[in-house]
Amino acid sequence: MKVFINPGHAPNGNPDPGAINEFFRIRECDMALSIGELVKRYLIKAGCGVKLLQSNNLYGEAAGENIIQSANDWGADVFVSIHCNAFDKTIRGAETLVYDLKGEGYGLGRCIHAQLIEEMQDIDGTFPDRGIKTRSLLAVLRSTIMPAVLVETAFIDNDIDALLLMNHQQEIAAAIARGITDYASNT
Predict the structure, then answer these.
(1) Which site in 29, 66, 67, 120 is 20 to 30 Å from 13, CA atoms measured?
(2) What whole-number distance in Å separates Cα of residue 72 and Cα of residue 83?
(3) CA geometry: angle 103, 78, 147, nearest 5 deg
(4) By three-state DSSP, how is residue 132 classified?
């Protein structure tokens, strides 16, 4: 299986670091890249081909390598974008975004989300499951030609979730990788 991993937002945060936790001074772009690199290592050990690309250019609208074109041209079997959510500092949990609730992307999303929630709730029994949600307008879900998901690992602006992101990247990455290999074994 060929897996394309897209850690969210711009490399080194320029021009777009994504969401930020001001208290801990952590940025979404850095957390997503760190988790993505770990997912890549786990998948390579599992025998997958993996390409990882962090770029602010999702659909040809900015400078840098085009994420969607790169994934489509590489012939990836699945596309996984890794992010950290943010809202108002009080919301917590993980959610997985898919194009719709009937395609292969939904099957991939279910596998990843189940593993991520199980892992996070083992670490913190109060960690919320925010579910699988449709986002048909997101370019990475709409325009990739393979099953695609966007994983919102936790809320970086919530200090409890931020600590989980800082201290449990190995577990988060392992859960995402397990979800991908679960999907591969079921297809």
Answers:
(1) 120
(2) 20
(3) 15
(4) strand
